Amino acid sequence: MEKAKFRKVASYQYSSEAIIFKGKLESEGIQVFMRDNHTIDTDPLVSNAIGGVKLFVKEEDFTKATTILESISKYEVDNQGQGIVCPSCKEKKAMLVSVVDDAKSFLSMLIALLFIVLPFYVKRKYKCDSCGFEFETKK
């Protein structure tokens, strides 16, 4: 009996991200195995050190899994499902990032670092993956 060979198809910083993509692949009929998810769930700070949560698929499903994962956009969309347009370069490659650019967000981060807790206030902006421009959208 020949053992199945597996290939790493993706890795994610947190297990919650990996579970979403694992569910998508399984809904397409691909068997998926996760690795290092329990370690990262126990201590999320080691995620970068060990390479994140890894998703593995069988060798024969690798091409199909890669195609499915590449079809999922990593960029933000608005409430209508349309990509958010960068005001600088007009590309639809905006990602939501946390920024510390005012006194309130700086104080929140400082308190979080001192007391080893999550920040109680986080300011977010969009950052274009093409040109690097940071912007806010109208609400």
Salient structural properties:
33% helix, 139 residues, 3-stranded antiparallel beta sheet, 6 strands, alpha+beta, 2 domains
What do these coordinates show?
This is Signal transducing protein. InterPro entries: DUF2007. It holds the Pfam family DUF2007. The chain crosses the membrane at residues 105-122. The protein has 139 residues and is α+β, with helices and mostly antiparallel strands. It folds into 2 domains: 6-71, Alpha-Beta Plaits; 75-139, no CATH class. The protein is built from 5 helices and 6 strands; from the N terminus they run E-H-E-H-H-E-H-E-H-E-E. It has helices spanning 15-27, 37-42, 47-50, 62-71, 103-115; strands at residues 6-12, 32-35, 53-58, 94-99, 123-128, 134-135. The strands form 2 sheets. A 3-stranded antiparallel beta sheet has the order 1-3-2. The longest helix is centred in the N-terminal third of the chain and has 13 residues, at 15-27. The model has no long low-confidence stretch (mean pLDDT 89).
